[in-house]
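ugh ok so i messed up the first submission bc i forgot one of the chains. this is the corrected input, ALL of the components this time, i swear. 268 residues overall. if the numbers dont match what u have on ur side tell me asap before i send this to the collaborators (the ones from the other lab, u know who)
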Amino acid sequence: MMHISAAAKTAELPVKTVRYYADIGLVSAPERSEAGYRTYDESAVRKLVFVRRAREFGFSIDECRELLSLYEDQNRSSADVKRIATKRLEEIAEKQRELQSLHDELAHLVDACKGDERPDCPIIDGLGWVVASE
Amino acid sequence: MMHISAAAKTAELPVKTVRYYADIGLVSAPERSEAGYRTYDESAVRKLVFVRRAREFGFSIDECRELLSLYEDQNRSSADVKRIATKRLEEIAEKQRELQSLHDELAHLVDACKGDERPDCPIIDGLGWVVASE
DNA sequence: GTTGACTCTCCAGTTACTGGAAAGATTACG
DNA sequence: CGTAATCTTTCCAGTAACTGGAGAGTCAAC
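and heres the new structure output, hopefully the right one now
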């Protein structure tokens, strides 16, 4: 049994965030000590770790909610979990493609820029190209 | 001279966003018609396009502010612009690396998951690995 | 003349927290 | 035992960059 700062430290989350997760009902509200302090047991901390990891994987809070209910459900099929994770994987791949074209386009502009004292600047011109090409 | 919906359409931005950009002072407040309608000329629309492009490149509103002032300044050196763009480029590259390791880690879990009716699930286990490995 | 499209302002909600104030509880030191 | 530092509580507000909606005024067309 520990108080919030120990739980937060163990789960590697800010104290504020731990409180927040209970406030929005992502994790269940913890028991309170006589003085009203939140108390956490090993199982509660485990769930916090689970959520932190899932968030690091880019799952939204709502996806975490879904994953957590699967995590807590002894009878869920691994197919349900795989479905969510695969969807997320596709989103990551899409984001990677976007980022790549962004990178290439901007790198091209930066390469073309002399970076000297003169005002000619392919980057500025490039950002306005839609109009410039009219 | 046009009203807001034509300007928004030309700049390929939502009407709400065009108003918003003026509200926060990112672009200067447009002239008003007698009835109080915002009116946009070619130069105003060009700046909206510039901002949209810069946002698409992932520049924050504050960076857009900076770029826009450089855009409007005939005397700025291209070095100033290159500095901002290069910084952004590094951020993109960093984000790409993060996304890649995320992708690899999650893909590994998804591959390991049978996705059947049984509750054994390497994805769920993997999300909790920090505790599981204790 | 009235229907429909367009515009205005203002307020609230979104996501996932984060910061700070004010007040009570606990612990550590001398 | 007193007190100072630390921890915890609640509540309110703010962040980024919009987005949605209400209620009201304006304009063009049939």
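quick check: The beta strands of chain A are 31-32, 38-39. that seems consistent at least. Chain A has two domains: 1-76, 82-134.
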